[in-house]
Design brief:
The chain has helices at about 1-15, 20-50, 60-70, 105-110, and strands spanning about 55, 70-80, 85-90, 95-100, 115. The protein is an alpha/beta fold.
């Protein structure tokens, strides 16, 4: 039987038929390595974002950083107790702090050209007839 297989391969080569086995092996190898790369990248991205926690600053440190120009953007969430402030410095590090209700904070941010974002207040509005 082995001789018959060799004769068939020789006949196929003479007829111009190509052997697709090397091409199929290359495609299988490429797909295997692509899947491995995708899995490794997804694992790396997951652990790269999990470990980054913002630095906790005191409110005084935050104000000093704003005045020194080392704060690029802030996000302020106001409540009756005070302001929950998070943001990013010029070095790319995130920070968070909590401060008292400060009516001059927005002026300070504008004066130092710091981008700020704040969601609408969640305080319930008081109807005009209840006054």
């Amino acid at each position: 039987m082995p001789a018959r297989r060799g004769v068939r391969q020789l006949a196929d080569r003479m007829a111009g038929k190509k052997d697709d086995k090397p091409f199929n092996d290359m495609v299988k190898n490429l797909l295997t390595w692509a899947i491995i790369a995708v899995v490794l990248l997804s694992i790396f991205n997951h652990y790269a974002t999990v470990g980054s926690t913002p630095d906790a600053l005191t409110y005084s440190e935050f104000l000093n950083d704003v005045r020194n120009g080392t704060v690029t953007q802030v996000h302020i969430e106001s409540s009756l107790n005070g302001n929950k402030i998070s943001g990013r410095g010029v070095n790319g590090k995130d920070f968070s702090t909590f401060g008292p209700p400060d009516p001059k904070l927005v002026d300070e941010l504008v004066e130092n050209k710091t981008r700020s974002k704040s969601p609408p207040s969640r305080r319930p509005s008081v109807p005009w007839w209840s006054n």
